[in-house]
């Protein structure tokens, strides 16, 4: 009996040490194709789920409870043979210390998404080779998710992962697919990653760290001090907006954070919010409905 217990303990500890980085949910919506019940969509959904959650994306050790929660919602608008066209909404979150709350980190609607896929084809990722736009797009978002998560725990903690995403961009740029080149618009994967690695947007990484580790993670201990840290973190982003008004990076940040910011400053101990509201309205005017709900 003791040997069995030790063996089971070994299996559990081994599994925990080998846990992958992601806990990702994949949903494929093919209603727009007029062929939503095609088996190929269910097969693709299952294969992508296994690919994302069973691949070891980094050399870091993640405990099972440390896996990053994320989801990818793929909407297929056109489907013919092995060619698929649509969009992919990518979201990820991070648990907040001392609470059951998960804070949204990444909310990106990637509309430049088309790929070729044959049912049951192997899904493999090679950083040095462009084999499939499906895999390249997925892997790009994976490393962006991991990088953003790392940014919230350590100053500039995500840089190495944004560099991997840059490698994916460089490899995919030779393809005919959109989203990988500077000429593919201001809301492309190329533009987002370029901002992540540019000194022009350096305050973003500082703000991510301060907002989460020194802000939200302290809410269970001292709400007032935590709010002040969050206000300071948001003020840090003003430098980016002064240089690049209406930047894609800040729009994506506030797409993820607007509801959370509204909730944080609509309850609990009062703090001075005049400067906060001014900064929010200047940096994210499209979220004005959220900001007007902040009452004190």
Task: Summarize the structure in words.
Helices cover 46% and strands 17% of the residues. It is built from eleven helices and four strands, in the order αβαβββααααααααα. Mean pLDDT is 93; it is low at 1-17.
SSE layout and pairing:
Layout: H1 2-17, E1 22-29, H2 39-54, E2 68-80, E3 83-95, E4 102-116, H3 133-151, H4 159-172, H5 189-197, H6 203-212, H7 223-236, H8 238-243, H9 248-264, H10 274-283, H11 288-292
Parallel strand pairs: 1-2
Antiparallel strand pairs: 2-3, 3-4
Helix pairs in contact: 3-4, 4-5, 6-7
Structure summarized in a few sentences:
The protein has 296 residues and is of the alpha+beta class. It has helices at 2-17, 39-54, 133-151, 159-172, 189-197, 203-212, 223-236, 238-243, 248-264, 274-283, 288-292; strands spanning 22-29, 68-80, 83-95, 102-116. A four-stranded mixed sheet has the order 1-2-3-4.
